[in-house]
Every structure is written in structure tokens, then in C-alpha cells.
Specification:
- With about 190 residues, the chain is an alpha+beta fold.
- It is about 35% helix and about 15% strand.
- It is built from 7 helices and 6 strands; from the N terminus they run βαββαββααβααα.
- Strands 2-3-1-4 form a 4-stranded antiparallel beta sheet, with helices on one face. The protein has a two-stranded antiparallel sheet with strand order 5-6.
- Helix 2 runs parallel beside helix 6 and helix 3 packs across helix 4.
- The two termini are about 30 Å apart.
């Protein structure tokens, strides 16, 4: 099994009641999924979180594949009344291990490229300059790898499929679509 990091979009920001339900679900007890809860009256504060971030969950899930990891969280979030997943994306900030997973390269090869030990120079500098975990921009790493001949898709196929399916499911929930129509479109009805 691998660890998969992604951001799951929700249909709405969590309410305090939903956050409480989230905190008391066994499915989320291990801390692999986190949320940001905004203040009840954001206008009273000089600084408040980005509204889009309030409708997202940061996820670090152990699963056989990225698609399995996304499906697991999308299923579990439905345990909280009123919440459902509406999309998924990658965060740009990555460790070299996450970049290796996304690019299909080994961690060691990216470490060597980052240190200029093998291959061309020009590997992107870290985005963070602190002690501890070092973060890079995935977009910059992907651009660099493409420049040296690697095939790195803009969005991994599993992530694109999961995002499209979650968006479709969200849209279908707001329509009254008959099972016959769903079958005719090639979609499951159960």
C-alpha cells in the first residue's frame, strides 16, 4: 500500500455541527483527513481563511491506488449529514517522495537531480527554506522533468477520472434522472 495525498472538495464548508460529527467518526480518527473551520462571524476578524479552503479536506490516505484512496474518503464523508465530495485536486506543495509517486521516478533519482548529482542542472529550488520537511512546487518539478524528456501528465489519469466522477455525481443528485436514462448513459443505477 502507498500513501496518497490530495485535496477533496466538498459541497459546502463544514458547519460547527458537521465538524463535531467529523471529529467523532472512527473513519477520521487517525488524522489522515483534516479540515479548516472558519469563524462564526468572519467579518469581526482582520484575517480570515480563504472561503474555498473551508470547503476542502486535506487528505493523506493509505490505499492500493490513488483512486481507491479518493473513493474511501468520498464514501466516508457521506457519513456526515449534508456533506458530499464534489471534486478532487492535487496540492502544488509536495515532498520529493510525493513528487516521485506522481512522476513515476524513484525518490533517490529526484534527490540526486535536486542535488545536481546526476543529469542536467536546473532542478527547482525548495519552496520552503526551513528545518524539517522540505516542500517543492509540483508544477515546477513537472516542468523540469518534461524539459529533460520525461512524460509527466498535467493531471494523473486516476485523479482526472475521480474528479469527473465526483462532479458528475454531484450534478446528478440535483436532477431527477430515471434509472433508464442513467443506464442509457452507461451509468450504474444502484
Amino acid at each position: 500500500m502507498s500513501d496518497w495525498s490530495f485535496v477533496l472538495r466538498l459541497n459546502q464548508p463544514l458547519t460547527p455541527e458537521q465538524a463535531d460529527a467529523f471529529d467523532h467518526r472512527d473513519a477520521f480518527a487517525d488524522g489522515s483527513v483534516s479540515y479548516t473551520l472558519g469563524p462564526e462571524d468572519p467579518l469581526r476578524y482582520a484575517h480570515h481563511p480563504d472561503p474555498a479552503k473551508l470547503s476542502e479536506l486535506s487528505c493523506d490516505i493509505e490505499a492500493p491506488s490513488l483512486l481507491d484512496a479518493i473513493a474511501q474518503v468520498a464514501r466516508d464523508i457521506r457519513l456526515i449529514p449534508g456533506l458530499r465530495a464534489t471534486g478532487v485536486r492535487y496540492d502544488d506543495a509536495v515532498t520529493l517522495a510525493e513528487a516521485a509517486q506522481r512522476s513515476g521516478r524513484s525518490v533517490q533519482s529526484l534527490v540526486e537531480l535536486s542535488r545536481g548529482q546526476h543529469g542536467p542542472i536546473g532542478f527547482p529550488d525548495p519552496e520552503s527554506d526551513t528545518e524539517g520537511t522540505v516542500f517543492y512546487s509540483w508544477r515546477k518539478i513537472a516542468e523540469f522533468l518534461r524539459s529533460i524528456g520525461d512524460t509527466v501528465p498535467e493531471t494523473p489519469r486516476e485523479l482526472a477520472v475521480a474528479d469527473q466522477v465526483l462532479r458528475l455525481a454531484h450534478e446528478l443528485e440535483s436532477l431527477e434522472v430515471t434509472p433508464g436514462t442513467l443506464r442509457a448513459l452507461g451509468l450504474p443505477t444502484a
